């Protein structure tokens, strides 16, 4: 009963799209490229938000909120930045509609044209640094450690639910520091926070690294990133953290009086973000042909109890036990849904929660009541067992959830390990990149944008990152034969 | 040390604006009418959000997210709705910028004009009911109980921080029901949730009532509201809950097969929202000439500890005690900031936390260490006491916070009581409305929009609501002398 989900092996892309819709995570709206995040999908995003928000606060950041609109002229103040974002932005030109002359509907009122067009933020560096100019006078005002949860708009031409949408939700951290080193440390710290979140909550192993110049954020000196591998062998950039140098400080004239005598210096900046794209990563990394597989730490509810009954009396008896179970599990911090609907049969419910990735399903029927047992099914391995309903069962479920979280991570890690390759020739390189299995390819590169570009054109593979833990190793570029000091990671990517 | 805050009695409006800025709550951005919510202000909003979100979930609602953009044609589908919002909306007409010909900056690319203009949502009924059309087929899909936290844009010409801004943050609930009664019950329930929140968290007594037809939400059959009274005698609408009838169901053709034989019926709807305007209500209702007064339940931190020291040794000794205090208070769920900065003097800190409304300030100096005491100051009454630092102190602080929450509420309630008047003549009516003290005026009204309009033009007073608990009482309209069955509440309003 997979509710008509296509198989991954047959059409991974279709499988993903169908899964997102059938599991009630999101759907396309009538507005081109903009999605609707449905309640079940949003509940997962809320868990991600809450977790990340706690991690940001633990590292000293506060939340704030800046305007949705950016005056067109601000975008132009940092040259690379405008180059990166001007080509795909939503532009507000008017502030009023009026009734159509023939009385049918409304039209834009030509008399309500804005003097300066406003851009719907694609990212907020410009509007934020324009505020920072007034907030920062002295070294005492630094560091300034701010995060914002917001919607942003980038007018992508080819969109896919969660992975690439015209509007998406994200968080963007924007920090200001007195020294270069402190800003770099912050950049690295936030990459590590993202990696920690990915591994311990998304159950997703990630590579940490630095982007090559051509993959860098528009306006950054360096972009750090975390890169994950999806089940189709393609990479997905799951989070980025940018060292901005003094670029935005210079563009917006943000200076501070230093501690050593009060000389005026430009501030050093960082920015970092993750988005609803993480939903795409989560779905693609773990799910199977039966539907979603959710790590327990991010599941909207971790356990579902399905009663098997033929009469109202049976349901009443089972309910009593089920509510006791729910209560006992709640005491251990486990979230439980008891699905006592009479409108749907148990088989339908089993398929439904399998599709929606509920980590643990408990079924209770009349036989179980007699025997003092429950049937416990784990979603990740599609295994089920009969467990005695005794004093230890709640702890048993708690341990099972921990085990599922670990197992999912381990499976993704094993997959990545078996899909990571060191290659020394361009032939090998092309063979792996072109193969259906795909994967991360560790190869020597001569460090030039030209070679990078040619490889991309010939194979569609891009440099995902220069790993943080890159081994120092003399070698020759797989493409040009020029010397290299270490391998970088190539892959096809989302 | 009021840091130059104007007095309320001299210029209430200026006092408010200055307080919002000096207490680091928010500031105007360079984008007309759009504010920046600063970290301290946003921390209060986050507490409001978390509390309300819990209340929505406790009443069965789930969060979701719908697109920022609304196709122009959607807005027109409900006639009253478009009439209400078309005149003040931000319109996206293009999706790309390009480099200016003379190489200076960027201009809108005329080749990237949208086929249909998009409106930045002023509220989301239209885009949401367009989705509901696909989500609802049968009575089994109902009720549909969804909330969204989002930014919205209404192109207001005269803006004020928090109270009226072009962009603001809010939540909007949108529910769909099988019966009229169920939808009305939901509408009333959410008004009650808002009133509960206002009274128990904002410490703000509110009137519950129904709007007159002319003050109704554009597209609603009935608008329920909560109305609060500010310290300048003006009313502030703090939340609204709309019974939409079948208006949006008809505009977007949302029907369901009923439980009795499956006949197709139009769905009944509600929508309800509160916004960052609540921040304005909070500030204006309680604060004084010294600065903010925050109810403990919404304060970013409830207690601040200020050490009084002359040497590093003294600071070290005090810190040990302070951290113990912080720990003990934390165990009771109390949030504490220990401000051990050496860059600022105790007097500066005292003024700062007074300005920022921290409910309780604890000062510890060398004398206190000797005596085993602390100095405890409550912000609301500007009173201070020396307390022994013994086993009971933490509970004492907890009780004090409860007392502050109650005292603030009581003060606002007393204010409202002493500023509520029953009047029977238009002379009396005009006298009170024109007086500096202002207030709520309970008066008979003939129920016509004409009278309402004339009173508004002559006095600037509007009908705030027809109270839910309106006494049935025969009377004559203060304006027209026509018969009336009960008093309604008039006031000048924000």
Automatic annotation (TrEMBL), chains A, B:
Coiled coil: none annotated. It is an enzyme of class 6 (ligase). Residues 39-295 form the Aminoacyl-transfer RNA synthetases class-II family profile domain. PROSITE patterns: AA_TRNA_LIGASE_II (PS50862). The keyword Iron-sulfur does not apply. Belongs to the class-II aminoacyl-tRNA synthetase family. ProS type 3 subfamily. Catalyzes the attachment of proline to tRNA(Pro) in a two-step reaction: proline is first activated by ATP to form Pro-AMP and then transferred to the acceptor end of tRNA(Pro). Homodimer. This is Proline--tRNA ligase. It comes from Reichenbachiella faecimaris.
């Amino acid at each position: 009963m997979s509710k008509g989900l296509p198989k991954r092996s047959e059409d991974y892309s279709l499988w993903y799209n169908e899964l997102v819709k059938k599991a009630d995570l999101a759907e396309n709206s009538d507005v081109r490229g903009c999605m609707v995040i449905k309640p079940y999908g949003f509940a997962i995003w809320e868990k991600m938000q809450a977790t990340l928000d706690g991690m940001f606060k633990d590292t000293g950041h506060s939340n704030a909120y800046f305007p949705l609109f950016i005056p067109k002229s601000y975008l132009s103040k940092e040259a690379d930045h405008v180059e990166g974002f001007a080509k795909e932005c939503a532009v507000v030109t008017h502030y009023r509609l009026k009734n159509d002359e023939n009385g049918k509907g409304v039209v834009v009122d030509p008399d309500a044209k804005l003097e300066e067009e406003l851009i719907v933020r694609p990212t907020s560096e410009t509007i934020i640094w324009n505020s920072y100019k007034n907030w920062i006078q002295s070294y005492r005002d630094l560091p300034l450690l701010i995060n914002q949860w917001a919607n942003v708009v980038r007018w992508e031409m080819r969109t896919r639910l969660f992975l690439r949408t015209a509007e998406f939700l994200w968080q963007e951290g924007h920090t200001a520091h007195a020294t270069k080193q402190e800003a770099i440390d912050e950049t690295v710290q936030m990459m590590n926070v993202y990696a920690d979140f990915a591994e311990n909550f998304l159950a997703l192993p990630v590579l940490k690294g630095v982007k090559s110049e051509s993959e860098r954020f528009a306006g950054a000196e360096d972009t750090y990133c975390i890169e994950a591998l999806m089940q189709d062998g393609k990479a997905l950039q799951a989070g980025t953290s940018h060292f901005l140098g003094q670029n935005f400080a210079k563009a917006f004239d943000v200076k501070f009086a230093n501690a050593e005598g009060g000389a005026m210096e430009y501030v050093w900046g960082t920015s970092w973000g993750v988005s609803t794209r993480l939903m795409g990563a989560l779905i693609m990394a773990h799910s199977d042909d039966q539907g979603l597989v959710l790590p327990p730490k991010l599941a909207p509810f971790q356990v579902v109890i399905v009663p098997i009954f033929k009469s109202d009396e049976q349901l009443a008896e089972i309910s009593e036990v089920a509510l006791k179970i729910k209560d006992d599990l709640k005491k251990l911090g486990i979230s439980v849904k008891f699905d006592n609907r009479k409108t749907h049969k148990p088989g339908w419910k089993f398929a439904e929660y399998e599709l929606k990735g509920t980590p643990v399903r408990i079924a209770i029927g009349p036989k179980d009541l007699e025997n003092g047992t429950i049937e416990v099914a784990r979603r990740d391995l599609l295994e089920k067992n009969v467990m005695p309903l005794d004093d230890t069962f709640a702890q048993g479920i708690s341990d099972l959830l921990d085990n599922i979280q670990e197992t999912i991570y381990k499976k993704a890690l094993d997959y990545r390990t078996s899909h990571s390759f060191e290659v020394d020739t361009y032939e090998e390189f092309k063979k792996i990149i072109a193969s259906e299995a795909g994967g991360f390819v560790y190869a020597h590169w001569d460090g030039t944008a030209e070679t990078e570009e040619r490889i991309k054109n010939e194979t569609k593979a891009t440099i995902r990152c220069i790993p943080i833990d890159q081994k120092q190793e003399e070698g020759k570029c797989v493409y040009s034969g020029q010397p290299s000091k270490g391998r970088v990671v190539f892959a096809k990517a989302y």
